Amino acid sequence: MNVNTINRIYWPLQIFGWLAYGSLLIMFTYMTKPEALTLIFSLKILATAIIAIALTHIMRSIILSRKWLDINLVSVLPRIIILSLTVAGLLVVGTRTFSYFMNLIGEGEDTFQISRIIVDWIANSILILFWNSIYFSYCFFRKYYFQEINNLTIES
After folding, report:
1. Coil, helix or strand at residue 37
2. Which residue in 40, 71, 77, 123 is a FRET match for 147, CA 20 to 30 A apart?
3. Which residues contact 98 (CB under 8 A, 6 or more apart)?
């Protein structure tokens, strides 16, 4: 599979995944607290998805440029955890900054409650670790598949 084929798969899945996450947040909010579902809230969810797409793409670029996919999983795991925590923190900063600007026009909630920031950081960390587990699983199975094809070619 060449780079163009991988990118044709990567970008639609990346965009679909984050927009699906945003849609689930909107649906959950509608079911639990419909009065909170405003245009500003929806814009915040969209901003979160856009920021997440950008940050996880940067994270993927770091993983690829440092060749972490070629390193033993046990050795790369601490790096992935640190990178995930950092990206989750940046996601919180990005979404909180967007919320701050929404507050300037008179919409939104208090942006800088420390307890809320910590909860968001933990939730985003879990989400980014989940993203990494999907990405590493995909890369592992793709590598395994091509290794099997190579082995069959050598045997025949």
Report:
1. coil
2. 77
3. 44, 47, 48, 51
Q: What is the pTM of this model?
A: 0.85
Cα–Cα distance for residue pair 124/113, rounded to 1 Å: 16
Task: Dig out the tokens for 33 from the structure.
Answer: 């607290």
* 154, pLDDT greater than 90: no
Please list, in sequence order, all residues whose beta carbon lies within 8 angstroms of the beta carbon of residue 146, skipping any fewer than 6 positions away: 1
Among the listed residues 109, 142, 101, 107, the one whose alpha carbon sits nearest the alpha carbon of residue 5: 142
Q: Average pLDDT, stretch 80-108?
A: 88
Q: At a CB cut-off of 8 Å and minimum separation 6, what does 136 contact?
A: 69, 73, 80
Helices (H) and strands (E) in the chain, counts: 4, 0
